[in-house]
Amino acid sequence: MPNPFKLASRECKAIDTVIDVGSVRIGGGSLVVMAGPCSVESEQQVLDTARSVAASGAHILRGGAFKPRTSPYSFQGLGEEGLRYLVNAREKTGLPIITEVLEPEEVELVERYADILQVGARNMQNFPLLRRVGQAQKPVMLKRGFANTIEEWLMASEYILAEGNANVMLCERGIRTFETMARNTLDLTAIPLLKRLTHLPVVADPSHATGKWYLVKPMALAAVAAGADALMIEVHPDPDNAWCDGAESLTPTNFAELMPALEAVVTAVGRQMRPTPALV
Amino acid sequence: MPNPFKLASRECKAIDTVIDVGSVRIGGGSLVVMAGPCSVESEQQVLDTARSVAASGAHILRGGAFKPRTSPYSFQGLGEEGLRYLVNAREKTGLPIITEVLEPEEVELVERYADILQVGARNMQNFPLLRRVGQAQKPVMLKRGFANTIEEWLMASEYILAEGNANVMLCERGIRTFETMARNTLDLTAIPLLKRLTHLPVVADPSHATGKWYLVKPMALAAVAAGADALMIEVHPDPDNAWCDGAESLTPTNFAELMPALEAVVTAVGRQMRPTPALV
Amino acid sequence: MPNPFKLASRECKAIDTVIDVGSVRIGGGSLVVMAGPCSVESEQQVLDTARSVAASGAHILRGGAFKPRTSPYSFQGLGEEGLRYLVNAREKTGLPIITEVLEPEEVELVERYADILQVGARNMQNFPLLRRVGQAQKPVMLKRGFANTIEEWLMASEYILAEGNANVMLCERGIRTFETMARNTLDLTAIPLLKRLTHLPVVADPSHATGKWYLVKPMALAAVAAGADALMIEVHPDPDNAWCDGAESLTPTNFAELMPALEAVVTAVGRQMRPTPALV
Amino acid sequence: MPNPFKLASRECKAIDTVIDVGSVRIGGGSLVVMAGPCSVESEQQVLDTARSVAASGAHILRGGAFKPRTSPYSFQGLGEEGLRYLVNAREKTGLPIITEVLEPEEVELVERYADILQVGARNMQNFPLLRRVGQAQKPVMLKRGFANTIEEWLMASEYILAEGNANVMLCERGIRTFETMARNTLDLTAIPLLKRLTHLPVVADPSHATGKWYLVKPMALAAVAAGADALMIEVHPDPDNAWCDGAESLTPTNFAELMPALEAVVTAVGRQMRPTPALV
Q1: Which chains touch D (3 or more CB pairs under 8 A)?
Q2: How far apart are CA A55 and CA A58, in angstroms?
Q3: Which chains have 3 or more CB–CB distances shorter than 8 Å to chain B?
């Protein structure tokens, strides 16, 4: 292999990395669910979503304040205002928050608010950004680029680890193929491959991968059966009027139905659902 | 959509197709497992494998007698002699048999021995073959071509259905992508998509898709969680000395461990493992 | 490499294979152009097209009588009647004809009419068909499967060569990728790779690859610059009313303009346009 | 189309954009060749390469000072020192220089030295970087992400154009597919598609796309035949000892042979090679 990864490898560290985010532990056997809207739209939207996913047992609140958008003419996120809404929701519900950071200069700001820093698929090989989050004090979730190999993904995690941040998790979110019925092809085979190659926790995002809400539940169950440590699920109180990615968002009701189904499968594979940290 | 499929569609037939193969029913809720060697190598090898997978609860015996091989210089299968070995194993174990047919002229011969006719990935758009198995009296399992869209796959099933054979099942076996760590990328999203679009049973083949035995169990579990009606699993009594695809074959011991794990997951999603028809 | 090709390799035969089709020589330096409609629709349509492409300097007439169609409900070709129309056009114009054969049983029939047997992309790994055309007396043009590697393609040619038919040419016609603006992605890099690996002539089909008539000329010129021995170009007297693939067909006028442009490029790379065999 | 590009479109501006870089004009008919090493290794290496490619007729000197590398343990470039070596070579030869910029904060520094700012494939959707180079005073060459669609590529150029920088050129450098014989699949069909959709100049990079020096010449010729306005070619005085990408680098001798071959093809398609600005 031309690019041997070191710090990310099982050879370097045999035991699973477990990442503590408040009282939530990611990795190490139990299943963690991150849920929330694609983008933060208003204080009320985030709070309503946070309360509903917390009531259903979610562990972490997701929501985008800085949005990477294909078009410069699309909504680019609320920025720091959005981060404040997320913090407000955390205070009201007890759910830690994960949100995306887009550039090295933004890391300091985002780190002041977020509990987990997300590096998105388009930035998987943004090496200055990887180095900068490697110097952060918060855990990092590194999404797989939609055309990146597993080897490249592990090498990207190596950039973060090499700067001293040991709390890295990897998130599979679908790769680009010729098939167009789903937005991307969720590569679940990556999960057992990663569990063999690396000690880092593995997350799956069936919402962005499929782009269709009715595919989220079966693919979430499949990801858990394949060994995922955590899931990332989009939930929106009113998907038809979401500012982005409404077609892939679950309603709070759909999400409430998903959680016990996930618990049944994770139990069937000899693991367990983690208790929610929510103040509910 | 430029090529609307008709007979395969839910619009044409809302209720799930259930295919009876002896006492085995494929589709309709319970899980069916097909297991056996990639290729028939000898009477003893097939019989030993059949007995061991039957003892573990498998429902159908798989084994190739006519093999499509990339190289003309590779082993091409035992032909009719291999079919006789499969029949012998069926008589001794009670397991119905599935085997591949490569060309229209061969269908009559294979149909005399096999319980299910398999059309392989490379032949998914071999239209004369599709028409010919459409005239056969036996059920057909149509594997997805490794670069074919779901729409093309359904159109290929339409060729079979249009000739009058209503007993068609579809088998996802991985698609070609840029990722090379596994042989192909198992597209499990195809399963819930197909369940929505068509009434035909859906099978998954994690062995050929991944090409690595240690990926078979997690991907088999994931396929069941995603909604597969049946699985196709390669089992060989001595994978290190298999004439083809040994690297992806489970040992009888691995397979024996897989079956209860599958039962746990299929139960968790509200379905059940079908009782084996084996004389054990 | 797991599947070393032998007879197709430069190691086996260093000098370029040159295939004689009547007075047309494919391979060996000069450029050959095959042109004609996607499918044979009527005696008049074929004859008109043949006369116009012959007048513009084409060397071989293409036209499908047996058509592989994604849907069983699409036009499947005129069959033997279509072959007779092609022969009629050959007699009137002097252009040898190339046409597709879909199954082993059809080879004998098609061989009686055609000068070159075409094996289409969907049949690149239809091994019984490859063996059967390997026993034919006519040259074979083997199209690359749209998801097949160059290695698999050479191995497929090996099936034909191993049966004794040394007159095989390879036709690049685009591969499947995530890009959807053109129908497929014409992989012109395959041309110099093949010229290095094999002695067999290499053809490019920019019409099927791109699916858009206005991309045919630049991609045809590019294929010649990359080293193609021959081109396959769809021409239809009335593309708007073609029974298949009209969007990618050149009008006779467009084709007449293409030919001198091709001659300029082939001359620029130190080769030459072959004289047409047409009785014009 | 969900993301209509505006400023990049032919609808917005029908006439070709021509970018002046010193006395070199990119776009508008004549062919421009950028050549040089993958990475700047030493003052002497850059100067030697610059002199040899200038003597052969190249127009612009390329060389990386900030290198995006898959592994954090690989050579990451000489940084500002490398930029000074490039400027030294420009002063000695008269060739303008193009070099890559990796992050927004670096733009100011790189802009002080370079004549053209290159945004690499991995940063095609690094939106903060796109915005920042959109505010720069120097032209930008935007490479296509190896898994990005043409539509996304045009939308990425829109980010730059929307900030006020009208001097954007697009560089095709290969996309990821299942084929592994060449590093990537050079998508030359993108060239005529882009020429139809946008007024921006189009560049092709056959060196990075193929990864093999012996494929560079045929693919460079093909790119010109397909309509490329400029080429980017890796040249290294000693490829066997290059610090990166030696396998794809031409020797100065190979490059000297390439230039008249390019001139022959560009003349054949009715255009011409631009005179070199070099002080030779």
Answers
A1: A, B, C
A2: 7
A3: A, C, D
Name chain A contacts of C174, Cβ cutoff 8 Å. Answer: none
Selected for mutation to probe chain C from D3, D183, D188, D189 (highest C CB count within 10 Å) is D189
Q: Closest Cα partner for B189 from A49, A184, A200?
A: A184
Ranges of residues in chain D with a pLDDT under 50 are 1-2
Distance CA D267, CA D273 (A): 8
Residues paired with A30 in a beta bridge: A272
3-state secondary structure of D132: helix
pLDDT in tens, B46-75: 999 999 999 999 999 999 999 999 999 888
Which residues have CB under 8 Å from B4's CB, separation 6+? none
Q: Quote the pLDDT of residue D2.
A: 46
On chain A, the residues whose CB falls within 8 A of the CB of B265 are 225, 265, 268-269
| Chain B positions in Cβ-Cβ contact with residue D147 (cut-off 8 Å) | 178
- Using CB atoms within 10 Å of the CB of residue D130, give its burial: 0 to 12 exposed, 13 to 18 middle, 19+ buried: buried
Which residue does chain C place closest to B127, by CA atoms? C68
Residue A134 CA to chain centroid, in angstroms? 17
Chain A residues in contact with C176 by the CB 8 A cut-off are 178
Q: Which residue of D has its CA nearest to A76?
A: D127
DSSP B39: B
| Cα separation, B222 vs A3, whole angstroms | 30
Residue A249: closest CA among A113, A114, A52, A75: A52
C1 has pLDDT over 50: no
CA distance C102 to C124: 11
Query: Please, which chains are in contact with A (at least 3 CB pairs closer than 8 A)?
Result: B, C, D
Instruction: Please give the ipTM for the structure prediction.
Output: 0.96
Q: Would you say the pTM of this structure is higher than 0.90?
A: yes
Q: Do A103 and D103 touch (CB under 8 A)?
A: yes
What is the CA angle B191-A26-A254, rounded to 5? 45
Residue A150 corresponds to which tokens in the numbers above? 């597993």
| Closest in D182, D189, D268 to C182, CB measured | D189
Q: Rounded to whole angstroms, how far apart are CA atoms C56 and C233?
A: 13
Helices D213-226 and C190-197 cross at an angle (nearest 10°) of 140
Contact state of B72 with C122 under an 8 Å Cβ cutoff:
no
Do the chains contact at B71 and C3, CB–CB below 8 Å? yes
CA-based nearest residue to D69, from D100, D31, D28, D114: D100
Name every chain B residue with its beta carbon within 8 A of the beta carbon of C126.
103, 122-123, 126
| Identity of residue A13 | K
CB A197, CB A9: distance < 8 Å: yes
By the 8 A CB rule, do A98 and A119 touch? Answer: no
**pLDDT at position B246, please?**
85
CA distance A121 to chain C (A): 16
Element housing A36 (H / E) = strand A30-36
- Between chains, do A177 and C180 touch, taking CB under 8 Å as contact? no
Question: Residue A170 in contact with residue A160, Cβ under 8 Å?
Answer: no
Other Cβ atoms within 10 Å of A170 Cβ, number: 26
Report the residue from C209, C218, C269 with minimal CB separation from D221.
C269
| Residues on chain B bordering chain D, Cβ-to-Cβ distance under 8 angstroms | 147, 176-178, 180
CA distances from D264 to A135, C225, C272, D32 (A): 54, 11, 14, 14
- First CA to last CA across chain A, in angstroms? 49
For the record, the structure tokens of A99 come out as: 């949100």
Closest C-alpha among D75, D85, D76 to residue D106: D76
Please write the tens of the pLDDT for every residue from C14-45.
Answer: 999 999 999 999 999 999 999 999 999 999 99
Integer Cα distance of D253 and A142 in angstroms: 44
User: Which residue has 């990049």 as its token pair?
Assistant: D8
